[in-house]
Amino acid sequence: KSANPQWREQFDFHYFSDRKDMLDIEVWRKDNKKHEELLGTCQVDITALPTKQTNCLELPLEKYPGSLLMLIAVAPCTGVSISDLCVCPLGDPSERQQISQRYCIKNSFRDIKDIGFLQVKVLKAVDLLAADFAGKSDPFCVLELGNDSLQTHTVYKNLNPEWNKVFTFPIKDIHDVLEVTVFDEDGDKPPDFLGKVAIPLLSV
Question: Does the keyword Calcium apply (predicted)?
Fold first, then answer.
């Protein structure tokens, strides 16, 4: 019930600087649980923004009245990584010892915001739902922690895909829940949902 909503949400996106990336933004209005209406769209050219500073942008919505006020900062990634299983971070015993020292009890108040990090090894999926007429799927896996999101590559024509990837997330809230969702890639169409699991960090 507002024409001037304030969300105050922060989202982290990870991209490689050699790509020309556009940030696509859509604003939707929700009447009830079933009906939604598009209120406008806008784009931000990430590569054109100055780095290592917070950019305050007022973005007019295309073809619709209204605008969005956003703060966007482009900065080098810290604490987030994607790697193959064979070069897994923390595989080195000396590195594990450094991490143990960094998060030991006597150092716990040195940096209050540095809660820790989560490392997830996504190995494989088994007996997935067949999403196409040939009895196969093109699955990929999306990991979400808070507003952080990372994903695997797609394994085509396979109901038992093996990804063997290692994902590392910085933890911002110990009460967050890791959500792991498997989708079927469907060309230019939105991906089909194949399944999901939620893991509270406090259960790890």
Answer: yes
